[in-house]
Design a protein that fits this description.
With 210 residues, this protein is an alpha/beta fold. The protein is built from seven helices and ten strands.
Length: 210
């Protein structure tokens, strides 16, 4: 599954790799990889693979799941489609409470004690998805874990997950993307070292060719 999803993301250019000319993230970090999983929704064949993989992953790893909760905004559609396939409720968690109406942060009906799986499209340092987990826990939900489409596997993200005592299972990851990219000729074997150096320490830009 990891390899198939990786190939799909590369084919539809949801993942760009550019070790020679790195991207600049909003945080200012220089990166050889850029991920835009929103493109999955406009590619039906890859979308079907992703949604079925999410469904299978939830059923296999969180068989007691009663509700899927998407992260706002990128996880919402994936949570909705997977929940439809599974025939269970879904909702989503805002990045912050509304400043009007009922001031909801969690949208959709959520009963205290319900077993929830969070659906996220992308995890880097893990901060935003952990905020979602904490909001759900504060609302009385039992968060079984997270299913993400792609994770960078950064040390900071892994440490945050461990500290929050939450499990994440990703459909594909950094290493699978790199492997699939080499096999397709998208990048060279030597480029993998640059990708891994970035993943292991995003603050260290020594991998960038001057």
């Amino acid at each position: 599954m990891r390899k198939e999803i990786a190939k799909g993301l590369l084919e539809i250019e949801a993942v760009f790799l550019s070790p020679g000319k790195p991207f600049t993230w909003a945080s200012g970090i220089k990166s050889p990889i850029y991920c835009d999983n929103r493109l999955i929704l406009t590619a039906p064949s890859v979308r079907d693979k992703v949604e079925n993989a999410i469904t299978d992953t939830v059923r296999e790893n969180y068989p007691d799941a009663e509700v899927l909760m998407g992260t706002s905004t990128a996880g919402i559609a994936h949570a909705a489609i997977a929940a439809h396939i599974m025939g269970i409720p879904m909702g989503y968690v805002r990045s912050g409470a509304k400043d009007h109406g009922r001031g909801n942060r969690i949208e959709g009906r959520l009963e205290p004690g319900q077993k929830v799986v969070v659906i996220e499209d992308l995890i880097s340092t893990g901060g935003s998805v952990i905020e979602v987990v904490e909001a759900l826990r504060e609302a009385g939900a039992e968060v079984l874990g997270i299913v993400s489409i792609f994770t960078y596997g950064m040390k900071k993200g892994l440490e945050r997950m461990a500290a929050a005592d939450v499990k994440n299972i990703s459909l594909t990851d950094f290493d699978a993307i790199a492997e699939a990219a080499v096999e397709s000729g998208y990048i060279k074997e030597d480029d993998v070292r640059k990708l891994q150096a970035f993943r292991d320490n995003p603050q260290d830009e020594s991998w960038i060719e001057k």
